[in-house]
Structures are given as C-alpha cells and as structure tokens.
Amino acid sequence: MPTDIARLHAIFDLAMRIGEGMLTNGAAASEVTATVLRVLSSSGLRNVVVEVTFNQVSLSYLPDDRSTPFTRIRSAGVRAPDFARLAAFEEVTDRYIGGDLSREEAGARVVAIPQEKPHYSRGMMIAGFALMGGASAFSLGGSTMVVLAATIAAGVLIWLTGLMAAAQVPLFFGQAVGGFVGVLAAVVVSLINPVENSSIVVVACIIVLLAGLTSIGAMQDAITGWYVTASARILETLMLTIGIVAGVRGGLLLAHLTGQSIAVSAALPLSLASVLVLAVSGVVIGIGYGVGTYTPARLLIPMSMAAGTSAVVAHILARLLLDRVWAVAVASFLVGMIAVVLARWMRAPALLFVTGGIIPLVPGSRIYRGLLALPDQMDQGAAELFGAAEIAIAIAAGAVLGQLLASRILTRLGISGWAYTPVVSAPFSTVRRRRLTLPKRRKRDAGRTEPSTMTGEMTALPPSLLQEAQDELDASSAQGPSADLHVGSSRRD
C-alpha cells in the first residue's frame, strides 16, 4: 500500500513507542511483536518485519519488490515494572485499533504516557513493598516482632535500592545491599529475642527482591522459542539473583561473627488455620505488590485475589497430593488461566495478574536454606538451590501454559476484547502472524469492513484484507506443513 514518508514515520513511531513501553514493563517478545503488528495492520501496512530483542524494537517495511526497505530501530530503557503505564499503552492500542483514536491522537497519547506522574507517590510505593514483606513473613508463620521487622526491612531495602538506582549504581549492587539489609534485620531480631525465628525476615526480604525481576516474561520467551531475547533476560535475572546471594552471604558472615544462628524452621502444617493464614497473607501480598508496581486501584482487588488463590492451592496440594514442584505448577497454571479471563473482563494487561498472582509461590525459603548449607554441606546446599530453580521453572511453565490454553479457548469462542488477550506463541511466519494478531472472523461477519487510521479521517479497509490472509492460510494448510516456509520466513528474534 503506497504511502508518503511522513506517514510512515508517524505510524512506525506509534508502533515502536507502544512496543518499547510493553518491553520495558516485562511483556514477552511474542506479545510485543503481536501488538506492534496489530497497530501496523490496522494502519494498512503489510510486509512489515518486526524484531524484538532484549532492549530493542526494530521494524522494516518493504512496500513492493522495487522499493527500498524502510527500517527504524528504537532502544528500550531501563526495565522497571509500572503496570499503570503498561495498562495505558494497551488501552491506547485497543482504542486505536478499534478506531476510537486517530493516529495523531494515539501518537500524542503514547508520547505523554512516560512523562506522566507515577500512579502512586514514591512513599506509597515503598509502603506497598514493605506491606508485602510483612505479609510474606506472616505467611511463613512469623510472630508479631518478626512481621514488624520484615515490614521495616523490606521498606528500607526498597528505599536504598531506589537511591542507588537514582545514582546510576548498577542494580546488581542494589540487590546485594537488599540481601544484606534482610540479614542485618534478622540479626537485630535475634539479639533482641534469641527465641524468635529471625530467619523469616531474610526469606521475606528475598521474596521482595525477587518480585521485582521480570522472570515470567523471560521464561515465556524461553519456553515459546524466542531464545535470543530469553537468554538475555534470563542472564539478567540470574545476575540479579546472584546479587541477592552475595548480599545474604555477606550478612550471614556478619551473623556468624556476632555469634547469631539464623536457621529456617519447617513450613506450616496443613490445617484450617494455616489455610486462613495463607489466604489472608496472599491477598495482602498481592495488594502490596500491586501498590509497589503502580497498579491502578481498580485492579488491586482482582490481583490480590489471584495471589491468595495461588497461595492456598499450592499449600493444599503440596500437603495432600503432590510434590511441591507440581503443586506450584498447578497453582501457577490456574493463575495463568485466571489472568487471561480477568484481562478481558477488566480490560487490563494479563501480565499484571500473572506476576502478582505468583508472588506467594516464590521459593524464598529454599534459596535461603541452600545458602545456609553451602559452606559446610555443599551437596545439600546445591540440592536446595536446584530445587528452588525447579520451582521457578514450574511457576513460569505453569503460568505460560495457563495463558496459552485460556487465550486459545477464548479466541475460538470469539469473545469480545481480543486486543487484551496475550499472544503466547512461538516465532511465527507471515501468514501465521496475521492469523494470531487479528481477531477471529465469523461467517456472519464476512461483509464487515475493518477500521483503518491510515489517514486523519476514519476510512474502511476492504473486507479482502482479512479474507486474503485467511485464504493464504487455507492454501498453505492444504499444501502441508512446509507451505508456511514459502509464504513467509520464520522469524526467530
């Protein structure tokens, strides 16, 4: 479709700013790619190649075989979850694709989103993570003193890591300082009352530090085949986790020098009281994490309910039927399915419900037990850390599978709100990407025209635009699985 260079720049700028906003907030490569393609398709552009890597979004457009490719690249900034902004980017996408916003209006909106004030003040953000730390300690059976210490320690470590980030100190050192603060708080509790189970303070701080990592998007990329992006994200998560380990090890050395023993007690037994404790603490963890990640107020309750559900389900299954790894996988699978339904119902990113819902499943205690055992019992410590890695993979795999199944079911049913359905997919070819990024058409909609914002006025694309993609798909299916290779090259980021 011929167009002038100014219009191309405007459309590409809109698509790339939306893609950058999603990427910096932890969205998986498949979702970023699909969203960018949705924006471009609704603008009337075809033959566009989208590449999403760890910190970059690039687009290349070839109008026809005799034209010079038009290519633009945009780098993504620092990744810091801000779900209010992520929701704003998805809202702009939905309204632009639906024709409620013109290209100029959508472009002005996406430029303004990163410049807006945070949804909550910095003090409220710190208080949210502090509340999350206290709730995590309560879920582990901590006493009033331990819960209070965990609350204060979580707030202090978030405040310190924020100061270090503002001073351009690498996040690795911020995570190390956070781990050290957790052990230091546990030492203080042990000095005040040696009978208290002060190790819970450390575990709660580890959970708070791990909650800020974009591990779900990383594992989704790895599981679905976007290996280049996944490898960079996993390496980032690994290095930041090592930072936590370094800080905790330094704190344990201090505890040893002061003669304090900070060991982890057994998990809560299954009882009605423990289920109630986990349900309440899970809900509070979800609220605290939501405030800490600037989640809009209307979404805090659904996010907290997802967190409470995952905590209770994993606890019951682990005590009655399954190994902890499988119990966590089932719980995260339910969270993934619930997240997709909530996303379409609440018109919000599924990522925030998934991330908030799995926080109670983070294996903080196993990580800490592994760190304690490493110096004297290397085999036991390595086994604990390997078990923590198993749980982390089970969390990610279960959440991804739940999203995949729920999104495919809802898409098949043709339920409205398709723009808020996450695209959980392996790298796709040209035909398949059109099918995955456009809404499913029913026979009764065969004569329906799709809105386009290619110009300032609202025009209509011919019905053949969607029909052509479906015809190509049918033709490739009739020729066999290899037909896709001749229609469009498979793109692996």
Automatic annotation (TrEMBL):
Residues 13-252 form the Threonine/serine exporter-like N-terminal domain. Its main location: membrane. Pfam families: ThrE, ThrE_2. It is a multi-pass membrane protein. InterPro entries: ThrE-like_N, ThrE_2, ThrE_Dicarb/AminoAcid_Exp. Residues 437-493 are annotated as: Disordered. The chain crosses the membrane at residues 123-140, 172-192, 198-218, 238-258, 270-292, 299-318, 324-343, 350-368, 388-406. Keywords: Cell inner membrane, Cell membrane, Membrane, Transmembrane, Transmembrane helix. Belongs to the ThrE exporter (TC 2.A.79) family. This is Threonine/serine exporter family protein. It comes from Brachybacterium equifaecis. The lineage of its organism: Bacteria, Bacillati, Actinomycetota, Actinomycetes, Micrococcales.
